Amino acid sequence: MRIIAGEMRGRLLKTVEGMQTRPTSDKVKGAIFNSLGNKVLDARVLDLFAGTGNLAIEALSRGSRDAVLVEKSRDAHQVIRKNIEQMGVGHKAKLLLLDAFKYIDRYPDEVFDLIFLDPPYREGLVLKVISTLKEHPCLAADGVIIAETAKDEELDGDIYPFEIRKTGKYGDTKVWYLQRMDV
Q1: What are the alphabetically sorted keywords of the record (predicted)?
Q2: What CATH number has the domain bearing residue 122?
Q3: Furthest-apart CA pair in the chain: how many Å?
Q4: Spatial CB neighbours of 58, under 8 Å, sequence gap ≥ 6
Q5: Would residue 6 count as lying in a domain?
Q6: pTM beyond cutoff 0.90
Q7: Is the pLDDT of residue 22 over 80?
Q8: How do strand 93-97 and strand 66-71 relate by DSSP bridges?
């Protein structure tokens, strides 16, 4: 797994051993960042279920201002810490060993331009996080939530005040782009 663009382009990231963590593939990551375009520039990024830190570090490489990475697995947390150090972005990245839902509840006033959600597939976690985010002003007015699910999963449920602006399927992954309805 590598950084695919920006100032850290081509640099390799460490991965978590075993099957607990499923990093976003380069193909999917490329599609996500191509869709986001200039929204990445100077963005505040929240990476929930950060895994290896792949998405947040890619955003930092492409010009995001800073990132908060939240991961509850100790093994994954250690890998993210090493990746942050290895890439030299410790001054822009805040890493927390914490459950995603606890993070949202503890820091309800933090506002982000991009929120990445890449939880384990088929556990309904994306919809649960979106339901939790609805109650907090975490997403900037023109911000984007980027969620990954299995390709056959749907976001069935009340997601208001967010709406799905775009989706894309890449292999076994479906990517959802959500924004506030009033934008």
Answers
A1: Methyltransferase, Transferase
A2: 3.40.50.150
A3: 42
A4: 3, 4, 5, 6, 29, 33
A5: no
A6: yes
A7: no
A8: parallel
DSSP string covering the chain? -B--SSTTTT-B----SSSS--PPPHHHHHHHHHHHGGGGTT-EEEEET-TTSHHHHHHHHTT-SEEEEEE--HHHHHHHHHHHHHHT-TTTEEEEES-HHHHHHH-TT--EEEEEE---TTSSHHHHHHHHHTTS--EEEEEEEEEEEETT----S--TTEEEEEEEEETTEEEEEEEETT-
Which domain covers residue 56, as residue numbers? Answer: 26-180
Residue 30 resides in a domain: yes
Strand order from edge to edge, sheet including 162-170 = 93-97, 66-71, 44-48, 112-117, 139-150, 173-180, 162-170
**Which one-letter amino acid corresponds to residue 14?**
K
Amino acid identity, position 173: T
Tokens read off for 48: 């929930």
Give mean pLDDT, residues 138-158: 93
Number of domains in the chain: 1
